[in-house]
Design a protein that fits this description.
The chain is of the alpha+beta class. The chain has eight helices and six strands, in the order βαβαβββαβααααα. Strands 1-2-6 form a three-stranded mixed beta sheet. The longest helix has 17 residues.
Length: 267
Amino acid sequence: MSKKKTATKKVAKKKFFGPDVYKRDAYGLLENVDYVFNEDGSVNWRAMIKPEFLYPNKDWFNFRNKEMPDSVDGLADNQLLIMLGGIKELARLRGFEKVSFITERLSDGYVVVRCKINWISNYESFDGVGSETVVYEDVANATLDNTDSFASKFLETIACNRAFVRCVRNFLNIHIVGADEIDKSKGANNSISVESVEVAATTPIGLLQKSLLSKKSVSSFEDFLELLRQMYKDEVYNYDVESIKTWKSWKDIPTKEVRKLIALIHK
């Protein structure tokens, strides 16, 4: 008795050209893109990052005296960096109507820029497709102390790039730090003192972030939480574990704890 063979019919994927490449469906998603979704139905934007836009965070491995890997395979988000091109690609996939930059502070050696993005509505939006655009803002700075000798000539541009990167990845819940956000100075260009930069960073949380970068080479919130766990283990910083669990971003840290952490980090 011969076995019956069953044929599997392959359905050719429709090719998109010209304006059709940017055509969106009723849910606000691009029709020519295969999206990855979370269990709750939202888009897994982290999974949408192409591997060519990711590379190992050298500082993360050097800080822990670990060997630098040759690829990004198997690396956690806090061990990676994402290129500006990857951030632009994510923004294009999500869809936006307008990107604007506002210079919050401009002085010799210190620039603060706010990026505001008007995202198009999609099914993830609170009011759904067809509602008004979703506006999200984020802020970043560029100083002579956190840029290399070349980038220090273009502080406004660097600050804009950093603010854009933070605006996109924080809105899309991406925990990989942008390559443009990393302090690339390596202590090579200190024509402005650390003290003067810290005075410019007037908020307590700004001082904490500056201290973490300069003293511990910690730039992301995820690495900061990892540092807290190590400080707790070493009995350097005793904190209420349940309270720490409520810290989802920098803004969640109570000012009292911020000042205590700054003092501990500078010890």
